[in-house]
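Onboarding guide, step 5: your first structure request.
Type a short instruction followed by the sequence, for example:

Predict the 3D structure of this protein.
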Amino acid sequence: MAKVFLALALTGGSVAYAPGAHAAAGPYERGPAPTESSIEAARGPFATAQTSVSSLSVSGFGGGTIYYPTDTSQGTFGAIAISPGYTATWSTLSWLGPRLASQGFVVFGINTNTLYDQPDSRGRQLLAALDYLVRSSSSTVRSRIDSTRLAVAGHSMGGGGTLEAANARPSLQAAIPIAPWNLTKIWSGVRVPTMIIGGQADAIAPVATHSQPFYTSIPSSTEKAYMELTAASHFFPQTSNTTMAKYMISWMKRFIDDDTRYDQFLCPAPRSIAISEYRDTCPLT
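The system replies with structure tokens like these:
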């Protein structure tokens, strides 16, 4: 997906150390050329910091935690809002925040208005969180974000909400529903590049009645992928998972940053004992 605006310069200070991140050739490429080891690492090339957002200071969602690169030399970054699942809080997914941010993204791990919010509500809350990041005068990271390069992700009902958000806002650059649950099975309106990650042994949102029909219903004209993790239960995202993170990074880099250096990890389809099934629309366009 070609973008037409060059990234703007940032301001800010470094508060943590990470290996040096090098300028890249493309207008949205961030960091050095990727390798298998670099996208499997627990931390990427960018030092990160984080800040908490109180539910009392926002509208439309329940606050959360923002993770962001402290590098101010490479321009703005894409941003990702991530929702937890039913009865869960962001703390159940918090390992993802610094892991994704250290690869060159602003990541907003949100809490929902209530623990029991359904997927349609979680979808609206994901979009409200993105709007807060790029529009609110209270957003401390607004100057670090390219408002044209935004994405969503979520677990369980948060994954169902991810589909809702992608369907409602086709200008998003990427979506990653993780073990998604939603009573709606048809997503023929989704135009956002979408990677669905399911668990082979998921008994709460079985892939046969959730992830797989969701994937199938998204038009083939939309870039999409379906990755099923071997023997994984519904709760696989709640502990550090290298396979999941590796391909989330690759998908987000490819579609948020238009970084074709990551094509090699997505096409041809990856093969691993950790992946029980993989479908996609390769080749990437």
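Each response can be followed by summary notes, for example: The chain has one domain: 36-280.
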